[in-house]
Amino acid sequence: MSETWAEFHYYADPTGDSVFEQTSIVCSACGKHREWKYQGVFYSIHDDLVICPWCIADGLAAKKFDGEFQEADFAETASRDSVLAVRTRTPSVATWNPIFWPDHCSECCQYIGDLRNHWSVEIIESATAQADIRAIAEITRMTTGEILEWAKRGAIYLRLFQCVQCGNYRLALDLD
Questions:
Q1: Closest to 37 (Cα-Cα) out of 5, 46, 24, 47
Q2: Which of 87, 112, 114, 173 could covalently link to 160 via disulfide, CB atoms 3.0 to 4.6 Å apart?
Q3: What percent of the chain stands above pLDDT 90?
């Protein structure tokens, strides 16, 4: 009988993003034989750890090895519990640099992926995404049209997030 897959409230599809590799391991956190190995970043003083998805999802790996999975900034409006869950119970998001992890409805949003892989008029024209695009344009001194064109070509990366409560879309800039 196989175990139910680990759930990650703030990361929509970590297996689709190849954050986990299917291979036989013994997890450094729980000591159990598992069929999935974490492939992402873990910020800890401990080296050579082999971590299973379940020990990320329940927080055991972060607690046992005093570590975190994200290098991100968070808004003060995001609840403390949601920020802690993203840092300690959410697999790392592969980014070029530390990013701003957006929130909405006072909670961290769920990471969906690179906008290029989820491009749609509904997302681009949503009020929250438009506000984020305008803010990114201001920071980068580009026009909103240039931001979208460069993102579509992969010259810059816009990371797509979605509010876990109301479904609004948010975008975060990730430059290489």
A1: 24
A2: 112
A3: 93
